[in-house]
Write a structure and sequence with these properties.
This protein is α+β, with helices and mostly antiparallel strands and 411 residues long. It folds into three domains: 129 residues, Acyl-CoA dehydrogenase/oxidase, N-terminal domain (Butyryl-Coa Dehydrogenase, subunit A, domain 1, Orthogonal Bundle), CATH 1.10.540; 111 residues, Butyryl-CoA Dehydrogenase, subunit A, domain 2 (Beta Barrel); 125 residues, Butyryl-CoA Dehydrogenase, subunit A, domain 3 (Up-down Bundle). The protein is built from twelve helices and ten strands. A hairpin with an 8-residue loop joins strand 6 and strand 7. Helix 2 runs parallel beside helix 4 and helix 9 runs antiparallel to helix 10. The longest helix has 25 residues. The relative contact order is 0.10.
Length: 411
């Protein structure tokens, strides 16, 4: 019996068995297309359709939206999303494609939206039928998020939106966007408001989505341009001018504080995908040469792999600790710390993989001689996005230093 199972309540234990039974009988198996490393890199309709079908099946079985109330499309359970997450990781299922919807939009709409809006939007978000994206960053407002200039002007009972968002993952497939914008130019923070915006139905009618080609050759990022897009005031979340406070709900969940309501899965390991955690470096080292022998025999390589495995184990322990209220010494510290460390550990693991592979690290996807099908160089290049998303590593360190350690603000 797992450590998690021993601590389950009666309801959670019964639900865990349901998850295991259902996953055993309904695991989607080998995907028909090559899957990306994460949902943020979904490029093709074939990839999306396969993953949407998986999310819909998991939702219909009660493994998604577990802890949300029944009236908004959830299952009305008590702390059971964690159980579903653990069992999906155990079964090595595919990831959910609607990662931004589940991890950021759902809790934000739930905590700040009107009841009618929740009932309309959340069921199709949970099922994956409506994909969501996040409209925060702009060309002139990234780490300084409160400087966004996308503006909404009130005209009657409508808002007319003009502006430019960038680095918008999944916008090329999204039906809806969570959107932080400015409604008052005279106040930096109090002039911000928060909307949910239907962008797919507005393509060519006030919304333009342009893919951005990344160094990996993928098109997960986009820029989104608003030109006189009209939206109803009912799409505004919370009060006018409270956009910054609503955005903090989004960011708290993006940085990992919302595991209770956010499905996470372990990723399918097959001939079309490859796990990029440190334990997989062992296989890479055994198949790579170093000084006329195997890289696995090099003590520096062995030490590097072991160091990354220790860090991953410690991170997992910290994530378990974050679920125990009695062990919280400061609100938000562990989620922030875990976001910072998980993104940097992933980047360092990718860098170590390229070092182990040596010259073969230059071989990429589609090359039969590329180690692990070329997944390691792609993982390394993609890792830089994760050390920027949800606030750069530098921003996370500033927050931890100022709000947790009490250090003075940096100049």
């Amino acid at each position: 019996m797992s450590d998690s199972a021993r601590k389950d309540t009666a309801e959670q234990a019964e639900f865990r068995q349901h998850c295991r039974d259902w996953l055993k009988d309904n695991h989607p198996g080998e995907p028909p297309v090559r899957l990306p490393l994460s949902p943020l890199e979904i490029m093709s309709q074939e990839q999306l359709s396969y993953l949407q079908a998986w999310q819909k099946a998991a939702y219909d079985a009660g493994l998604v939206g577990c802890d949300y109330p029944v009236e908004v499309g959830g299952a009305g359970r008590d702390d059971c999303q964690r159980v579903a997450n653990e069992e999906m990781i155990r079964a090595r299922t595919p990831f959910m494609p609607n990662v931004i919807g589940l991890g950021m939009a759902a809790p934000t709409v739930f905590y700040h939206g009107q009841d009618e809006l929740k009932q309309r939007l959340l069921p199709r978000l949970f099922s994956g039928e409506d994909i969501w994206c996040q409209g925060f960053s702009e060309p002139g407002a990234g780490s300084d998020l409160a400087s966004v200039q996308t503006f909404a002007e009130k005209k009657g009972d409508k808002w007319v939106i003009n502006g430019h968002k960038v680095w918008t993952s999944l916008a090329h497939f999204a039906e809806w966007m969570i959107l932080l914008l400015r409604t008052d130019k005279s106040h930096k923070y109090d002039g911000l408001s928060y909307f949910v915006v239907p962008i797919r139905s507005a393509l060519g009618k006030g919304v333009t989505v342009r893919p951005l080609i990344k160094i990996t050759g993928e098109t997960g990022f986009n820029e989104v341009i608003f030109e006189d897009l009209e939206v109803d005031d009912s799409f505004r979340l919370d009060e006018l001018g409270r956009g910054w406070q609503v955005a903090m709900t989004t960011l708290a969940h993006e940085r990992g504080a919302g595991e209770k309501v956010t499905p996470r899965s372990g990723g399918l390991k097959s001939k079309t995908t490859h796990a990029t955690n440190a334990s997989n470096l062992i296989e890479l080292a055994k198949s790579s040469t170093r000084n006329g022998g195997s890289a696995a025999d090099d003590p520096l390589v062995r030490d590097g792999i072991m160091r990354q495995m220790i860090r991953e184990t410690a991170l997992a322990a910290n994530q378990r600790r974050a679920r125990v209220p009695a062990l919280q010494d400061h609100p938000g510290r562990l989620p922030l710390q875990n976001k910072l460390l998980s993104s940097e550990i992933a980047q360092e693991t990718g860098a170590l993989a390229l070092e182990i592979a040596g010259a073969r690290a230059s071989l990429y996807l589609g090359d039969d001689n590329a180690p692990a099908g070329g997944q390691w160089p792609m993982a390394y290049m993609n890792s830089y996005g994760m050390t920027i998303a949800a606030g750069t590593s530098e921003v996370q360190r500033n927050i931890l230093g100022e709000r947790v350690l009490g250090m003075p603000k940096s100049k």
